[in-house]
Amino acid sequence: MKESNQSLVTGGQSDPFLPQLLDAINQATEIDITVAFIRQSGLDLIFDALRDAMDRRAVIRVLTSDYLDVTEPQALRRLMLLAQRGADVRLFSTAGDPSFHIKSYIFLRRDGDDLFDGCAFVGSSNVSNMALTRGLEWNLRVDYPADSAKFLEIFDKFEALFSDSRLFSLTHAWIDDYAARRKVSLRVVSGEPEEEPLPATSTEIQAEALLALQSTRIAGYRRGLVVLATGLGKTWLAAFDVQQIKARRVLFVAHREEILMQAEDTFARIQPEASIGYYKGNVRDSEADFIFASVQTLGRDEHLQQFLPNCFDYIVVDEFHHANSPTYRRLINYFQPGFMLGLTATPERTDQADILSLCDDNLVFERNFVEGINADLLCPFHYHGIHDRTVEYTEIPWRNGRFDPHELSNQLATRARARHALSVWRELRQSRTLAFCVSRSHAESMADYFKNEGIRAAAVHAESELPRHAALNQLESGKLEVIFSVDLFNEGTDLPVIDTVMMLRPTESKILFLQQLGRGLRLHPGKEHLRVLDFIGNHKAFLNKPESLFGVTSLREFIRRQLQDDLPLPKGCFANYDLGVIDFLNEVIKTLPKGIIEIYEQLKSVEQRRPSAVEMYRAGVDFKHIRSNKKFGSWFDMVADRGGLDEAQQKVLQRHRHYFLEVKKAAMNKSYKMVLLEALLELEGFIHPQTIQDLAIRSGEILLRRRPLMVKDLPNRFQNLAEVLTTRLGPWITYWNSNPVHAFTGGNNNQSQPFFELDGERLKPNFELATEDRNIFRAMVQELVDYKLACYMDRTSGDMNSRALTESNSPAEIDTGWDEIPFFPNLKIACGHFKDADGEDEARIKIAPQHRTDPARHFVARATGNSMDGGRNPIRDGDYLLLELVDTEHAGSISNQIMAVERQDVSGDDQYVLRVVRKQGDGGYYLQANNPDYADFGATEGMRPFARLCKVVASEEVVKV
C-alpha cells in the first residue's frame, strides 16, 4: 500500500478524504471500518469498491451504530448485501449507552499470514457524502510498517471492540424495527447537514412504457416484454412499475451478479422501506420482500421447490434475450405471479421471435437507441467504420457460428494491429476510452503496447491486478486514458464518463454489438458525443453491424444509402466508413441469402447458433416450402440436414418424428391444441400423466396470460375465465375435456392410434420417452408450439387487434366508386347474450362498390362474441357486419334469417343480439345460435328485429372517412 507523504487529511475541496479511502480499499486484503453512522449518500461512493474487494476475496468487517438514529435504514439494507456475500457487519446499540462516536478505517495487505503493508485513518469522517467529499474533516493517517507501533495499537483496539458483547450481527428484522422507530430529522444531524437526494422520477420514455404496462394489465395480460435500448433505464422502469402496482413481493432474475447488484441498488432507491435479499450461490434469502436471484441457482428444481408458485406478486426477468434456455423456461413456467416482465435491449422482432413466446407474444413497449438519442436521453455518436486491414479474418477457423478463440486472439494480438489501432486512436480519440478485446492476452498486449508508446492505459479483466472499480475511478480522474477490457463491461454496467469506444474484436451477435455501443451512450456533463472506432474486417461476422446501427432492412439498402450519404441517423450523429470497408461489403452482397437454406445459414452465422422455427418464421420463411421439399419433409429434418441437431437430438427426431409431424400439421381453427400442449409441457405431462382437472386449470391460466386467444376463441360464458377457474370449475373442465382433450385422444381424426389416451382421470401419452430423451423431446415440442402459436396469433390478429378502421386512409385515397354509408362504432351487435350498446355515435365509412349499398337503409356495426361462430358462414368476434334496417311495414319474412334483435333492459337502455330467427309450431319465434355451445331462447313481445344481416365484410373493404 503506497505510503502517503501527508499524515493528516484535512478535507474540503482541496483535500477530500474519498480519494485516499478508495485507493486504500482497492489495494487491501483486509478492511475494517468503524463509524458512528452510515448514510446512503456516503455508502454509494465506496460500495462498488467494497464489492470489488469482496470479488478478490478481501476480508471486510464493518461496525456502525444507531447513535442518535442517524444511520439510514436503506444504507443498512445495502450493507446486508455485503453481509450475504461474506462481510461481517455488526451494530453497536446505544440503547444502554448514550454515545458511540468512533471513526476509524483500517486497511491491511497480507501474504498468507504475513502482514507486509497497511494504513489506518482515525479522525472525524463518518460515511456520508459530505464527510467524504466536501466537509472539513480531519483524519490522521498511520502507515505500516513506517509507524508499526501506532498502527498495531489501532488494529488491536479495533479487534477488542469488534468482540465486545454489546455488538450484534445486523439482520433484516432489526433493520425493520429500527426503521419503524427512527425519529431523527434528516436536515440537521450532529451538526452535519446533508443534501437530501432528489426523488427518482421517470423519463418521458419510461412514463410511456409505464402507461403501456398499465394498459396491458387492464387488457388481461399477465406477462409482457419491454424492449428498451441500453441506457434508457430498463431496471428503473421495472422498479417504477413495481411501485406503480404496489407489489409487495418481487423476484428479480438475471444471469450475472453485476446486474443483480445494480438492480438491487435501483429498487432500494425507489422503495427503501422494503427488505432486500439475494438468492444465489450459497446466499439463499427466501424471506425478503424483494429477492434478487441468479437464474443459475434458482432455476434448479431443488431451489424452485422452496417457493410456492404464486408467492410473488411481480417477477422481473432481465436480459430476457437469454431466457430461451431450459433453466429460464423452467423458472418462468414454475412461477405464477400477478405479472411477469421481461426486459431486453434486443433490437429487432426477428431477434425477439424466440423469446416473445415466453411473454405470451405480448410485446408491450419498444424503444431503440435512435429514439433515445432523439429524446435527449442518450448522447449522439460519431461512428467511424475502420478497415481492419492488418488481419485476414478469412484465414481464421470459423466453428459453430464463431471464430476459433485461440486463433482469433493470436491474429488480433500483433504489433502491426496494435500499431494501426494506436494510429487511429491518436487521430480520433477524445478523453476517456473503453476498448473491447477478445481475450486477456489480447487486452494485456494492447495495454502494454499503448503504455510503451506513452499512453496511460490498463488492461482490466477478471484476473487483472487493477480492479474494475479502481480502473474506472482512474479513468474518470484522468490517471488513465484507455481501459482495454474483456467481458467485464458488456452487460449491466453504467459508464457515463466514457466518451470513446474502440471495438477491437469481432462481435458476431447484434446484441453484444449494441451492448458495447451502449456503454458509451450514457449522458455525462461535458460529453457532447460518443466517438465509436469500429474495426471491421473481411468476414461475414461483421455483417450485422450496419443493420444494427442504422436500422436498415438489408445490407443492400445500407450500401445504397451510404453511397448517397443518406443513412438514417439520429439527430447530432455522424457516420463514416473507410473505402476498404465499403469494398468488402459490396463483395459480400453478391453472396447474400436468397432461399430458405441461405436464410437459415445467415441467421445461424449472425446468432452463433441454429435459428429456431419461430425465428425463421419471423424472418419471412414460408414453411410450406419446407414441407413440400422432398429432401426434408419437416422443419427438424431440414435442421438435421444442415447440421443443426447433435447426435442425441437426431436420435430423438428418429424415434418421435411422427409426433413432431403431428404437432407441426395440427389444424388451428382455434388455439386449444397448442394451449393444451403448453400446459402439458409446463406440468411435465409427457413424463408424469396429469389429471384432466389440472390440465384444464393450467390451460385456463395460459389463456388468461394470452388474453387475445381467450377473447378470440372462448365462448361468452367463459370470457370471465378468472372467475370461472375459482368458482365454476366444473363446466370449464367439461368444456376443455370435450375439445382439445377429446381431440388428443383421437376424437377428431381417423388416425389408427392416437398419441394420448385417458388412464382414469389422467391424460397419458401412448409412447414411451427414454430418460435421456426427455429434455430434448420437451425442447423440440416447445419449439413447435411456439411456432404454431406465433402463426396463429398473426393469422388471427386481424380479428383480435387490427380490424379497427384504419386512420391512415383519407377519402381522397378511396376509389370514387365506393359507397358512403353510416358506421356505428359503439353499436355492439352481440354474438352471445344481449349486450348493452350505444348506437348514437355515427361515423361515415366508404364501402367497396360490389356490396351495392343504400345509405338510407344500410349501415355497418361490429360483432362481439362467438355465438354465431359456426355453420357454413361463421361470424367471429370483431367481424364487420353489413346490416339492412327493417321495420314492420317492410320487413318481409324474417323466418330462418339472421337478424339483429333489439330489446330494452330494466333501466330502459337498448340491448342487441344477433341470431337466426326460427318459427315455432305454435306461431311463436325463438332465437337460435349457430354455435352449439350457446342455448336457444324464446322471443318475447319486448324484442324487436330491427336489422337484417346482409353479409360479413372484410376489413379491407371498409375505410373510415
Helix-and-strand structural type = alpha/beta
Helical stretch tally = 34
What is the total tally of β strands?
Answer: 39
CATH-assigned fold name of the largest domain: Rossmann fold
Q: What is the 3D form? A: globular
The proportion of residues in beta strands is: 15-25%
What is the radius of gyration computed over CA atoms, rounded to a whole number of angstroms? 33 Å
Domain tally? 5
Distance between the termini: 78 Å
Assembly type of the chains comes to single chain
The percent range for helix content is: 25-40%
Largest beta sheet, briefly?
A: 11 strands, mixed
> What name goes with the CATH superfamily of the largest domain?
P-loop containing nucleotide triphosphate hydrolases
The CATH class name of the largest domain reads: Alpha Beta
**What's the CATH architecture of the largest domain?**
3-Layer(aba) Sandwich
Keywords: ATP-binding, Helicase, Hydrolase, Nucleotide-binding
Pfam families: Helicase_C (PF00271), Peptidase_S24 (PF00717), PLDc_2 (PF13091), ResIII (PF04851)
Domain Helicase ATP-binding: 215-365
Organism: endosymbiont of Escarpia spicata
Describe the structure.
- Helix 16 (415-428) packs across helix 17, helix 27 (647-664) runs parallel beside helix 33 and helix 28 (672-682) packs across helix 29.
- The chain has five domains: 8-181, Endonuclease Chain A (Endonuclease, Chain A, 2-Layer Sandwich), CATH 3.30.870; 204-367, Rossmann fold (3-Layer(aba) Sandwich), CATH 3.40.50.300; 381-589, Rossmann fold, CATH 3.40.50; 613-696 and 707-797, no CATH class; 811-960, Umud Fragment, subunit A, CATH 2.10.109.
- Strands 29, 30, 31, 32, 33, 34, 35, 36, 37, 38 and 39 form an eleven-stranded mixed β-sheet that branches.
- The chain is 36% helix and 21% strand.
- It is built from 34 helices and 39 strands.
- The relative contact order is 0.06.
